[in-house]
Design a protein that fits this description.
With 243 residues, the chain is an alpha/beta fold. The protein is built from ten helices and eight strands. The chain has an eight-stranded parallel barrel, surrounded by five helices. The N and C termini lie close together (12 Å). The structure holds 2-phosphoglycolic acid (PGA).
């Protein structure tokens, strides 16, 4: 199975979502393509999306690490489970950098999602300074180890390798870098979980011009797509690299 997951971030209006859905439906998805589509949408659109998208996973972009209670403005994992959400992004670099989310919070969020059977999609990635200092592997290993501490190893989780310097910059990592780094991540996750079943996606400026090379040659299980997932044509052109 391969995965094409869009992360809409804080974008889209109801009208734009209708246009997006119409745009996507123009594309024929081959029956044997074995591609699972997913969209991480803003909370307010989740219930509407669940109705219009049949075979597409609908996910959230964040979740509280707390149980239900006096946490004004937060959304709990039990609520996400209650409305039948398929997945939830955890630890996106924007949450880590703009909202000071720590590895400990990321770990707590994964555990809460597992409790309510919402699949976590964990994002990890090094900053530009860490990349230039040659500490990518060290950073990723620390993020993975802390995120996986005490989680239920029998439940599915997806991991996305997203170099922070490649997100929204138009500067994707090279196929060689992705292949090598994803291979490293795969090996470390195998050691931590004792199996090889965790899909690993790449994210960071994936677009229709680089998606063939990345999705076909970088030994990834799919892509997490930000900017290009706001446009039905770009999103489907990226996906067609896997058809
Ligand atoms: P981008 O975002 O595709 O716009 O670089 C990726 C992401 O943040 O998941």
């Amino acid at each position: 199975m391969k995965y094409i997951i869009g992360n809409w971030k804080m974008n889209m209006s109801a009208g734009e979502i209708v246009a997006f859905t119409r745009g996507v439906k123009k594309y024929k998805i081959p029956k044997n393509s074995n591609v699972q589509f997913g969209l991480a949408v803003p909370y307010v659109y989740i219930l509407g999306m669940a109705k219009i998208q049949d075979h597409v996973w609908i996910g959230a972009q964040n979740v509280s690490e707390h149980d239900n209670g006096a946490f004004t403005g937060e959304i709990s994992a039990s609520m996400l489970g209650d409305v039948g959400l398929d997945f939830c992004i955890v630890g996106h670099s924007e949450r880590r950098s703009l909202f000071n989310e720590t590895d400990e919070q990321v770990n707590a969020k994964i555990k809460k999602l597992q409790e309510y059977d919402v699949m976590p999609l964990l994002c990890i990635g090094e900053t530009e300074a860490q990349y230039e200092a040659g500490s990518t592997k060290e950073v990723l290993l620390s993020q993975i180890t802390k995120a996986f501490e005490g989680i239920d190893k029998t439940k599915s989780i997806i991991v996305a390798y997203e170099p922070v310097w490649a997100i929204g910059t138009g500067k994707s990592a090279s196929v060689e870098t992705i292949r090598e780094t994803v291979g490293f991540i795969r090996g470390e996750i195998r050691k931590l979980l004792g199996h090889n079943d965790t899909p690993i996606l790449y994210g960071g400026s994936v677009n229709p011009s680089n998606s063939n090379a990345i999705l076909r040659n970088a030994q990834v299980d799919g892509a997490l797509i930000g900017g290009a997932s706001l446009d039905a044509d770009k999103f489907m052109q990226i996906a067609s690299s896997l058809f």
